[in-house]
Structure to design on (147 residues):
């Protein structure tokens, strides 16, 4: 028990997050496609950073990309996120991180729908979801048509 207490003091995120959330957000991991909690979520609301609670993406910009990860065509505000070059896995991608706490969220690609042409492909493990009052399930937009 003392070792856990010491490691939580050294890294407070370990005590706040599940092992999967920690791996994804703090070690830049990726959950397997079609396994995350929110890839198929059809409720209306706001997706927040699982680490700090910062509102990042709205369900109105979520769409069905066919990738198995929650996909959005824009964040709530560009001021909520940052992108960094990720050269892991022998390729160059644009990593998306929470501007507030630097949690790894996923990656952004330039193959999304209009009006932005972007696909923010995120890990469910990096997100919390706050459902809007009175929300009922809805069909997400297809890749060709944003909501």
């Amino acid at each position: 028990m003392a070792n856990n207490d010491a490691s939580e003091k050294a890294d407070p995120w370990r005590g706040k997050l599940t092992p999967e959330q920690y791996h994804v957000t703090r070690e830049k991991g990726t959950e397997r496609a079609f396994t995350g909690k929110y890839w198929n979520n059809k409720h209306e609301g706001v997706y927040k950073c699982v680490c700090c609670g910062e509102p990042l993406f709205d369900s109105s910009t979520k769409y069905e990309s066919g990738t198995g990860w929650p996909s959005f065509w824009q964040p709530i505000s560009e001021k909520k996120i940052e992108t960094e070059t990720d050269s892991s896995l022998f390729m160059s991608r644009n990593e998306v991180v929470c501007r507030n706490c630097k949690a790894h969220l996923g990656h952004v690609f330039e193959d999304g729908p209009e009006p932005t042409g972007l696909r923010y492909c995120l890990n469910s493990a990096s997100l919390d979801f706050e459902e809007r009052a009175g929300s009922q399930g809805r069909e997400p937009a297809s890749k060709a048509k944003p909501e």
About this structure: The chain has a mean pLDDT of 87. Residues 29 and 89 are 12 Å apart (CA to CA). The two ends are 49 Å apart (CA to CA).
